[in-house]
Amino acid sequence: GGGGLPHRGGGASTGGGAVCRPAALPGGGGEGGGIPPPPKFPAIRRDIAFVADAPILHHDVLAAIQKAAPKELTCVNLFDIFVSEKLGKGRRSLAYALEFRSPDRTLTDTEVNAAFAKIVQALKDSLRVEVREG
């Protein structure tokens, strides 16, 4: 007999990893539906990768990021999960893309770098993750 489901190792799913909020639209838009206008100003993307213990979940990471993030952080996307013996038992590497955009101007690298540094520090402080620099 038997007939059980095949067992797949790992079990890390990147499904539903992106959390994006549309840039606030001016004027409240009482016209009902419609396609929002494309953003006027470019987004600046920063990637962060860190090694975390298994109990740390995607929503823990999001909470830590959002606590430290400025309102210009418009998108957080988990794009890679890597599990390896080399990282240590029960540990995994998570990689996130962070997107910063202002609805009314182009952000400078200096502003984004400062906000990003704050987020990195918050992750280290609250989740004790090991950020992989560079």
User: Could you spell the SSE succession in H and E letters?
Assistant: EEHEEHE
In percent, how much strand structure appears in the residues?
A: 25-35%
How would you characterize the largest beta sheet? 5 strands, antiparallel
Identify the overall geometry.
Answer: globular
Low-confidence stretches: 7-14, 25-29
End-to-end gap: 52 Å
Report on this model:
There is one protein chain. This protein has 134 residues and is of the alpha+beta class. It contains 2 helices and 5 strands. A 5-stranded antiparallel sheet has the order 1-3-4-2-5, covered by helices on one side. Helix 1 (58-68) crosses helix 2. Mean pLDDT is 84; it is low at 7-14 and 25-29.
SSE blueprint and pairings:
Layout: E1 18-20, E2 44-53, H1 58-68, E3 73-83, E4 91-100, H2 109-127, E5 130-131
Antiparallel strand pairs: 1-3, 2-4, 2-5, 3-4
Helix pairs in contact: 1-2
Q: Main traits of this protein?
A:
134 residues; alpha+beta
Summarize the structure.
With 134 residues, the protein is of the alpha+beta class.
